[in-house]
C-alpha cells in the first residue's frame, strides 16, 4: 500500500479505537491494536506487514457495531413514539 493510504487508514483506525474503546469486545480491540501496530511499523521501516483486506476487515467489524447501535436507536425511537 502507498504511504498516504496507510496514514489515512491509521488515522481512521485510531479514531475508531478512541471513539469505541468502551464499546468493543476485547477480541476486536486486540485485532485493532495489532493492525494499528503493524501499520505503524510498516510506515516506519517500509516493510509490508498489512494487507488491505486486514484493514477492511477491522473497519467492517466497527461498521457492524455502529449499525447495531443505529438499529437499537431506531427501534427505541419507534417504540417511544
Give a brief rundown of this model.
This protein has about 80 residues and is mainly α. The protein has helices spanning about 5-20, 25-45, 50-80.
Q: Report low-confidence residues grouped into runs of 5 or more.
A: none
- Using the CA coordinates, give the radius of gyration: 15 Å
Topology order in helix (H) and strand (E) letters: HHH
Largest sheet: none
Shape: elongated
- Distinct helical segment count: 3
Derived structural class = mainly alpha
Structure characteristics:
81 residues, mainly alpha, 3 helices, 0% strand
Topology:
Layout: H1 3-20, H2 26-45, H3 52-80
Helix pairs in contact: 1-2, 1-3, 2-3
Would you give an account of this structure?
This protein has 81 residues and is mainly alpha-helical. The chain has one domain. The protein has three helices and no strands.
Amino acid at each position: 500500500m502507498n504511504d498516504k493510504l496507510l496514514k489515512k487508514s491509521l488515522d481512521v483506525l485510531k479514531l475508531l479505537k478512541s471513539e469505541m474503546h468502551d464499546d468493543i469486545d476485547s477480541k476486536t480491540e486486540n485485532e485493532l491494536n495489532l493492525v494499528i501496530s503493524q501499520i505503524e511499523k510498516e510506515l516506519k521501516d517500509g516493510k509490508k506487514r498489512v494487507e488491505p483486506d486486514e484493514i477492511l476487515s477491522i473497519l467492517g467489524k466497527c461498521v457492524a457495531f455502529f449499525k447495531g447501535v443505529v438499529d437499537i436507536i431506531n427501534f427505541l425511537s419507534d417504540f417511544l413514539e
